[in-house]
Amino acid sequence: MTRMIMAAVLAFALWASAHADVTMKQTSTGKGLGMSGTTTSTTYIKGLKMRVDGELGKKSSTTIFDVENQKMYVLDAKKKEAEAWNMAAISQELSQAVSVDGMKASVKPNGQKKAIAGHDTDGYDMEIVVPATVGGAGGMQVTIQLTGVTWMAKGAPGSAEYAAFYSGAAEKGWIFSDPRAAKGSPGQAKAMAQMHAEFAKIGGVPYESNWDIKPQAEGMMGSLMSKMGGLSMNSITDSVETGSVADDLFQVPADYKLIEKQ
């Protein structure tokens, strides 16, 4: 469950800039399956590269995303190791479990307004439905439903860069979850990726988001999923700064052992 929450937080913490560097700090709280946790994160963006440093309780994580080269690096500071994931292969694998043609996405203004971190934001209701297969070809058919509300700050620093990044990532079929969590829950991973793609279309920055992901299925498995519940997340942007970010933040340290993952 810790990995699932961290994966969801990473998906929410992502920030990008095609023309300027951005540093963003967020606080996110996730709960589900009888567990909960609050994560603080700092995200550094330079072009189509991004680094997310997160803290969940006593656990810390560092992930580097290289969207252009389709690589994700998960760093372990204690072991001085870095897992290198081929995200093009991961996306291809997930495409076999998720029907893109069957996805439905809706993000509509709801008339709500809220001041967050010194910015005036507008509320949007969102709903994303993703049909998926669990357990490989011929596996169980599951429908993943993501619903919630987000407050967007149009014209805020980073708006254009945010839209450019996520539009580019969507074209490559990029997903932002931990690959192991994504393989286990392909529908959830695709739903979160699609959520950010829809945000990019609005042309603003999400300063606060509240959403729930619930799996639905038929028969006994559907009944079990209903009892287990889904995953809920609240994410708030605490601050955003624009300014130069060092190149080496987006590189695996030279003294780290690189481990290729599939």
Which class do the helix and strand fractions yield?
alpha+beta
The low-confidence parts are 13-18
* CATH H level, superfamily name: Lipoprotein localisation LolA/LolB/LppX
CATH hierarchy: architecture: Clam
Q: What is the CATH topology classification name? A: outer membrane lipoprotein receptor (LolB), chain A
The main pleated sheet reads as: 12 strands, mixed
**Helix content, binned percent:** 25-40%
Number of strands: 12
Strand order of the largest sheet: 7-8-9-10-11-1-2-3-4-5-6-12
Rg computed from alpha carbons, rounded to a whole number of angstroms: 18 Å
The global form is: globular
- Level-1 CATH class name: Mainly Beta
Strand residue percentage:
over 45%
The run of helices and strands is HEEEEEEHEEEHHHEHEE
Mean pLDDT: 82
Total helical elements? 6
Question: Would you kindly provide a written description of the structure presented here, covering whatever features stand out?
Answer:
- With 262 residues, the protein is α+β, with helices and mostly antiparallel strands.
- The chain has a single domain (2-261), classed as Lipoprotein localisation LolA/LolB/LppX (outer membrane lipoprotein receptor (LolB), chain A), CATH 2.50.20.10.
- The protein is 26% helix and 50% strand.
- The protein contains six helices and twelve strands.
- It has helices at residues 2-13, 87-95, 159-171, 179-184, 186-202, 219-228, and strands spanning 17-32, 35-47, 49-56, 59-66, 71-76, 81-86, 104-116, 119-134, 140-154, 204-216, 231-242, 257-261.
- Strands 7-8-9-10-11-1-2-3-4-5-6-12 form a twelve-stranded mixed sheet.
- A hairpin with a 2-residue loop joins strand 3 (49-56) and strand 4 (59-66).
- Helix 3 (159-171) crosses helix 5 (186-202).
- The longest helix is centred in the last third of the chain and has 17 residues, at 186-202.
- The radius of gyration is 18 Å and the shape is globular.
- It starts with a helix and ends with a strand.
- Mean pLDDT is 82; it is low at 13-18.
